[in-house]
Amino acid sequence: MLARRCAVLLIEPREALELDWQAMLSGGGALAASLSWVALAPHLDREVPVAAEDVAALGRVGQTVWQPVATLEQQLGDACVARLLACGLLVADGGGLPDGLPDALAHFRARDDVLRAQHWRPLSAVAHMFSRWRGMRSESGMQFPTFDELVQVYGQPPEPAVTRGAQGCAIALPQPEKSTLDGVLLRRYTGRNFDTKAQMPLALAARLLQRTFGAQGRREMAPGASVLKKTSPSAGGLHPCEAYVLAQRIDGVAPGLYHYHAVDHVLEPLHMMSGGAARQLALVAVADQQWFADAPWMVIVAARVARNFWKYRNHAKAHRALLLDAGHLSQTLYLLAAEAGMAGFVTAAINEGELEQALGLDPLADMVVAVCGCGLPAPGDYVELRQ
């Protein structure tokens, strides 16, 4: 049997502080620190506590070249190699697997292969996989204090605008001239109180999807390789972000999950459900932010990382570009919603784990970035901004 280190691995030292009663009673310091090591490997999707000797051992095994397990056992010790194989930090290839481990080792190898195939930048893969939420609810720590409460706890926030440069050297600019776009820009706002009885007209939903996420044109860049023209920019013109619709109240569309096909301009049914189940999934999706869950529909934005990383392989900026792409799309949806007299929203405070499960997505290949949507505001919710 052969083995090598997993493709991406970050070892984090963690310090825990606790009261040292003996030292405190003897007049010494009140706090004692203990150090532990945690392995963050994206293909595992969980933290793995490791011993200091395991950290040292992992530093002696490469991630590319396969080595005989027997050789590693001679170098590192049988028990150490067995531990690292059992937790997936070493991945195995070939026969002769220890009893009780074949299924687990095959799973670790398969997940590691998926990660390698995507061409993630290591730090970006760690940041993505270990910043996702699963099961975050209001009772488990998802709290939204008011601005007043934040000021009471943390004091005044940093100033909303800052001054840079030498004093007295600023150049006064003329006031902007009014234009037809101003009306839409100044009506754009984040809705937090939606009319729970209002339906989303199908024709309007279709327009919002097509103008935000749909292809406005297609261009062949090389034989068999094309890019889409959309109303928002995208790194490299690749447009990796896919739109998945959670419908609650769209005329003529049953509640459930759909995929929007950017070229064919169709909704592809994925999972139909009752209205109550759709509302519950919406609430889970946005981590109990019920003010967003009341919208007639949501769009889950998930990036196909292979589309972006095909060009930007192991690139330091590729992950950031995916986040920017999702931001561009959400603002376009905001403006189209404002034009239609609706309130929009976008949030990154989402339970990616549950959304991945509901949509059948692999987080190593399809990166759920944000949830956005829009709908008619509840009566009296909106105060128009004017110049």
UniProtKB/TrEMBL annotation:
Residues 186-372 form the Nitroreductase domain. One of its GO terms (molecular function) is oxidoreductase activity. Pfam families: Nitroreductase. The lineage of its organism: Bacteria, Pseudomonadati, Pseudomonadota, Betaproteobacteria, Burkholderiales. This is Putative peptide maturation dehydrogenase.
